[in-house]
Known about the structure:
The complex is a heterodimer. Chain A is 26% helix and 27% strand. By secondary structure, chain A is of the alpha/beta class. Chain A folds into two domains: 8-375, Rossmann fold; 383-470, GMP Synthetase, Chain A, domain 3, CATH 3.30.300. An eight-stranded mixed β-sheet of chain A has the order 6-7-5-3-4-8-9-19. A five-stranded mixed β-sheet of chain A has the order 11-12-13-14-15. The longest helix of chain A has 15 residues, at 27-41. By secondary structure, chain B is mainly α. Chain B has a single domain, classed as Non-ribosomal Peptide Synthetase Peptidyl Carrier Protein, Chain A (Orthogonal Bundle), CATH 1.10.1200. Chain B is 56% helix and 0% strand. Chain B has helices spanning 3-15, 19-22, 35-49, 55-60, 64-71. In chain B, helix 1 (3-15) packs antiparallel against helix 3. Chain B is globular, with a radius of gyration of 11 Å. The interface between A and B is medium-sized, with 24 and 20 residues.
Amino acid sequence: MISRVWDLEKFGDSVAVIDEFGETVTYAQLKNESEAVAQAVGQRCLVFSLCRNETGSLIGYVGFMNGGIPPVLLNSHLDEELLRNLLAAYKPSYLWIPEEQYGQFEGMEIVYRSYRYMLLKTGYENTFPLYEELGLLLSTSGSTGSPKFVRQSYANVIDNAESIMAYLQLDSSERPITTLPMNYTYGLSIINSHLLAGASILVTDKGIMQKEFWNFFKEAGATSFGGVPYTYEMLDRLRFCRMNLPSLRTMTQAGGKLLLDLHEKFARYADENGKRFVVMYGQCEATARMGYLPPEKAAEKKGSMGIAIPGGKFHLIDENGSEITAPCVTGELVYEGRNVTLGYAESGADLAKGDERHGILHTGDMAQFDEDGYFYISGRKKRFLKIYGNRVNLDEMDRLIKGRFEIEAASSGVDDHLYIFLTDETKKDAVLRFVVEKTRLNSAAFQIIVIDEIPKNDSGKILYKELSEYFAE
Amino acid sequence: MTNYEKYVNVFTETFSVSAEEAVKLEYQGISEWDSVGHMGLVAAIEDAFDIMMDTDDIIDFSSFEKGKEILAKEAYGVRFDK
């Protein structure tokens, strides 16, 4: 079989995957097992994969990617109603699910099983045609269950993984441990780049707040992990800097801007303990990574997300679209590189679309660079927040609430703190329950504020600036 | 308020559950008690009992019952006489 992404044969008996229960899968086994899943599908068609950080989930993913079968990667805990809507909109031919979730899909034919995952045939007819280079579909939010996906090509995935491997200097001695969901672009990029390097991936669905995670970390000798800003806040609370972790080499951070004092603290910890702390920048629309701050600059350039990754290029444009050439002037960040994805899909019909971006991405992030050419993110053009690393679109949030309750609602906030303004006091608790259920985010991220009237201008546009006075420090 | 009542209160307030539900709680047993919820729980417990918990105890705090055992340790000295 021709492998479209990874040459697994090259690493033969090296270990590719180790799970928390001690089960290992070599590269040779990964090749056989993943090809078997692809063969069970037997044709190029769309698959929905309900992901967990488990061996079976990974084997399916590798099989689909190498076998030319585009998967839509979703969290296995996605709200059932949202999942049903996605199924109806995209009509995948197969599902790759954890065995224990079969109850959700009773009646569908079980075609194949491997490592506690099963392949189900959906039976949808009139499925949608797929563009020949379409490799993978990922959600931008991962949470609100929006039917909008980013279309990534095989070349996108390979190019970005190669670039990450180069700037992080990854080789087969690496043992990254999973700390992020694999359906999340950052978590997936760790898997993609390390499989290319022939490294051993430590998979666990346990989190950093659990003893089992740290036992596995120490026993299996993890060398690296990635974290969003909230991960680092939790690590700080765990007094991470006092933990004895001799196997650890590298900590990476992405998914939003880290608080300055935490950036400094972890940079100093890394420096003093012979480890690397690498702040990075990226988006699902650019496969995963676009920028990184070289670890030797971590302390000196705190607050910066760094420079473009190998093969990529950043520039800034002003409101008229002209390039900004002077340092310390804010403009929209534009990225160019082969990892810029094809575009979005908002319906099954969009799966036939080709490359709409041609290697150029307007990131929607506002940034500036300093005299040395290091970039700093200063804000966003669009209305969204990052909650625990997940993008949450505020307009979409308003639409969800209005659609369900038929009341006035406006959301605003800062990263990790979303404020929902309502005028109807009686709906307060129900709205909170609803948004937690829909986003699957902890309720600590949301605060409902009841006000007399949502401030609007003459043409009825909501004045978000006035709302921000309710939560500004 | 006894220490036990205080302890139950931390759970009922952090996770919006009843006292009957609180005593049966385990990490990830409800969606609210995830890693984010855990951080909030630990902060609330540290506040309520005016203690600073060790890393090992924070990650070992896997249920309502386990938490009681941890807090009763000498380092924290929280006594749960009912």
